[in-house]
Design a protein that fits this description.
The complex is a heterodimer of chains A (254) and B (220). With 254 residues, chain A is of the alpha/beta class. In chain A, 48% of the residues lie in helices and 14% in strands. Chain B has one domain (6-211): Rossmann fold, CATH 3.40.50. In chain B, helix 1 crosses helix 6 (186-198) and helix 3 packs parallel to helix 5 (129-149). Classes of the chains: A alpha/beta (254), B alpha/beta (220).
Chain lengths: 254, 220
């Protein structure tokens, strides 16, 4: 049986670790050639090697998604080396630290805005002609329940993640005539960042699991990657402008 | 409804903000318009201070200014960095700095913040991705601030008018006709709704978005 993404080429930003790595592995498992776009080759190259070891073409391209020229160059190299671009997954984030609305400084805002929102703009703009040429172009952005219900601890994380959802809805309408779908995934999964938090707080994992209907944290490749593969595949060709929350059932606000 | 209450209003140079300012005055509020370079932190602080000098310590901020650059319909591939900045960064920075400039005045003062956030951010709007992103960013800043400032006795809510009120065509967003049959008037239709959110009676309502579009956008 042919795999659902056989012959397709996918880019995943922030694919050097965590959810991005899981999505890259899952897309490769579904047959797509994958570009591991990572800020540092030290983290991205091993993921590309892992995919190649599974017999699927993959390259790592060192990319700072907060730099428009770098994103354009990454997309150009993707098409030059792998022949096309069908799927772009913008997953990279700069992890925020706790702050208050009344006192947060411009630096924290810039870090969040640049990677998440400007990164989405750069990825969307650079990918568009190739997604259009693909005939089944897919733009997928990783958002968060915080982008729907806000956050008491990370207040500015809500706006930047919400902006991606509004972009997805707008571009779904704008690019629908080109056969491109634009969707978001809101994941909760075990990642290096979360593992670090668990190491610092022994009870945190149990607390999160206890309030999650499925009683476990997500697996980046199997759980989040599975949703990404679905959205990238022809099976989701009539789904656009949507957010799929993949968090074990905790957030039911959509 | 607003007797004895002081409200600061942005966007008074355009029909939405000007109409709301009049509507709030009719509801009994002392109103001052806030203007200046609000995307600059010091500029926002100065503009709020000038308004406070005029009318006294505010109970509420109504942020009705909408970046004019955002209203120009344009495919995303043609949106250059300067235009994205003028819509996304200016909108978000203005909202954040205004929140910071009024926080101390609103704390312990039965404080209210109301953002005017047209429904296009919830529906999505082709050719308006920058504005949609910015407005949805504002809506979530309001929710996050509502979560943090509840302890300060401050409510933060949004009122979502029709995009047609801003002169935008609603057809491309696949919106239905308003159930109430008209687009709405800033002063007569939106004024009383915003006045309620600035009043003492709305004290248990926070983090919400009220669609005030005559019955178009009914989700959720």
């Amino acid at each position: 049986m042919t795999k659902p993404l056989e012959g397709r080429v996918a880019v995943v930003t922030g694919a050097g670790q965590g959810v991005g790595r899981g999505i890259a592995l899952a897309l490769a498992g579904a047959g797509a050639a994958v570009v591991v776009a990572a800020r540092r080759a030290e983290t991205g190259e091993p993921v590309a090697a892992e995919i190649r070891a599974r017999g699927v073409p993959a390259i790592c391209i060192e990319t700072d998604v907060a730099n428009g020229d770098a994103v354009r160059a990454m997309v150009a190299r993707t098409v030059a080396e792998l022949g096309r671009l069908d799927v772009l997954v913008h997953n990279a984030i700069k992890a925020p630290s706790p702050h208050r609305v009344e006192s947060v400084g411009i630096e924290q805002w810039e870090e969040l805005s640049e990677v998440t929102v400007w990164g989405s703009l750069y990825c969307a703009r650079a990918a568009y002609p190739h997604l259009k040429a693909s005939g089944h172009g897919r733009l997928i952005m990783l958002t968060s329940p915080a982008g729907i219900e806000g956050s008491a601890g990370l207040p500015l994380y809500g706006p930047v993640k919400a902006a991606q959802r509004a972009m997805a809805k707008s571009l779904a309408r704008e690019w629908g005539p080109d056969g491109i779908t634009v969707n978001c995934i809101g994941p909760v999964a075990v990642t290096p960042a979360l593992d670090k938090a668990f190491a610092e707080n022994a009870e945190l994992r149990g607390r999160i699991e206890a309030r999650t209907p499925l009683r476990r944290l997500g697996d980046p490749e199997r759980d989040i990657g599975g949703v990404a593969v679905f959205l990238a595949s022809d099976a989701a060709g009539y789904v656009t402008g949507q957010t799929i929350i993949c968090d074990g059932g905790s957030f039911t606000g959509l | 409804m607003l007797d004895g209450r002081v409200v600061l209003v942005t966007g008074g140079d355009r029909p939405l903000g000007a109409g709301l300012a009049k509507g709030l005055q009719e509801a009994g509020a002392r109103v001052a318009l806030v203007d200046g370079d609000l995307a600059d932190r010091d500029g926002a602080v100065r503009a709020v201070a000038a308004a406070v000098a005029e009318v006294g310590r505010p109970h509420a901020l109504v942020h009705a200014a909408i970046e004019p650059a955002g209203l120009e319909v344009m495919p995303l591939v043609d949106v250059d960095d300067a235009r994205w900045w003028a819509v996304w960064e200016v909108t978000m920075r203005t909202s954040l700095w205004l929140c910071q400039a009024v926080h101390a005045h609103l704390t312990g003062n039965d404080g209210r913040v109301v953002f005017l956030t047209p429904t296009l951010s919830m529906s999505g709007a082709p050719g308006l991705a920058a504005l949609a992103a910015a407005v949805e960013g504002q809506r979530l800043l309001a929710k996050s601030a509502a979560r943090q400032w509840g302890a300060d006795g401050i409510t933060v809510n949004c009122v979502a008018p029709s995009p047609e009120l801003l002169g935008l065509a609603a057809g491309e967003m696949a919106l239905s006709a308003p159930a109430l049959g008209r687009v709405g008037d800033p002063e007569a239709d939106l004024g009383p709704i915003v006045a309620f959110l600035c009043s003492a009676g709305s004290r248990y309502l926070t983090g919400a978005t009220l669609s005030a579009d005559g019955g178009v956008w009914m989700a959720p």
